Amino acid sequence: MGQPAGSSGHDTDWWRRVRLLPKDTPVTTPPGLPGRPASARLQFEGATYDRVPDTGFTMLLAWLAGLEHLVRLPDRESHTVTVTEIRGTARITHSGPRTSTDQDTIDEGIEDYLADAGVPAPPRGHRWYQRLPHGHDTLDDVYAHVNTALRATDPEGTAIHPDQLKPILTDIMAVLYPH
Asked: Tag placement on the chain: N or C end, fewer CB within 10 Å?
């Protein structure tokens, strides 16, 4: 699973060992993945991989899936950011290109979340793809499975900090990605 046996959770080279695919690897947006970027899915060596969203929680799940279930691409895409302002009863939504400051904020949030879980930070500038486990058509299906199992394991929702969630998520992901 996430980290090789006998290695520290702070193995700073862990993410760099994730297979780096050529930047021209074809990616698609399959039907049923509304709102996902054009690089939502790729096929590699007979397996289907979906893009991991840019959040600490989803990157923790990717780490727990393990090296053999991840690939990465250099991030050369244009990204957008959508911001919703609430002014009184009015909601105003703005979309625009993601700035380097926006990206730094996203990356720092991921790094902080992973650090709280005792997991090394991934190198910046990549898109991460996670292999879909048997019986799951999208990563959203995987996340729904994880959230259902998390609620069943911790029905009171007491595990809220990443270091509390990690052992529970480790067991859940071991079912999805058995060795």
From this structure: C
**Rounded Cα–Cα distance for residues 40 and 27 (Å):** 7
Which residue type sits at 80?
Answer: T
Look up residue 25 and give its amino acid. Answer: T
- Choose among 1, 109, 124, 11: nearest CA to 62: 1
Contact 123, 36 (CB under 8 A): no
Least confident stretch, 6-15, 21-30, 156-165? 6-15
Question: DSSP states of 108-119 as a string?
Answer: HHHHHHHHHTT-
Q: Give CA–CA dist 143/140, Å, rounded.
A: 5
Residue in 93, 130, 114 with CA at minimum distance from that of residue 166? 114
> What is the model's pTM?
0.86
- Max Cα-Cα span within the chain: 55
pLDDT digits (tens, 9 = 90+) for 119-133: 999 999 999 999 999
pLDDT in tens, 136-174: 999 999 999 999 999 999 999 999 999 999 999 999 999
What are the percentages of helix, strand and coil residues in the chain, rounded to 5? 35, 20, 45
